[in-house]
Amino acid sequence: CAYCYARNNVKRWHMIDDFAAPEFFPGKLKMMEKKRPQNFLLTGMSDLSGWKLEWRDEVFAKIRANPQHQFLFLTKRPDLLDFDTDLENAWFGVTVTRKAELWRIDALRKNVRAKHYHVTFEPLFDDPGIVDLSGINWIVVGTMTGAQSRKIHTEPEWAWSLTDQAHKLGIPVFMKEDLVP
Questions:
Q1: Prediction pTM value
Q2: Of 26, 127, 132, 164, which has the highest C-beta tally within 10 A?
């Protein structure tokens, strides 16, 4: 997306040669072997829909071997995914930034048949309105951060509406600290 922090980080730190060609770093899987339970966001610098099948299989095997941790995945392209998993400690989610992207939630539930789902509403460019959160286990609400944060704001009413909708269904909400003001 135009506001992608991952692309900016790759350019700044010269992590890989071509951002459009995802790379897999199997050596990083050793981080999952820590004994103390932790949360891992495995798609902070990628989108699950861009992973090769063999990468996903290798990561899922490592997740299965480390039940002490929780693993989070995010995608903006759930329409490109199609798999089943019985992983107890993996959470699959989509990013929704505007009402026109609510289809992503339905596509996630349809294309990724898993035990745990989450939705990240961050940043919000408009009011998502009434959202079908059935089957969702957790939501995150945030706003734009970084250089563009002065231009784009999540309206408090949008955040409160999402929170109210989630709480009516017993869904926990994590509000990012950038919403404090």
A1: 0.88
A2: 127
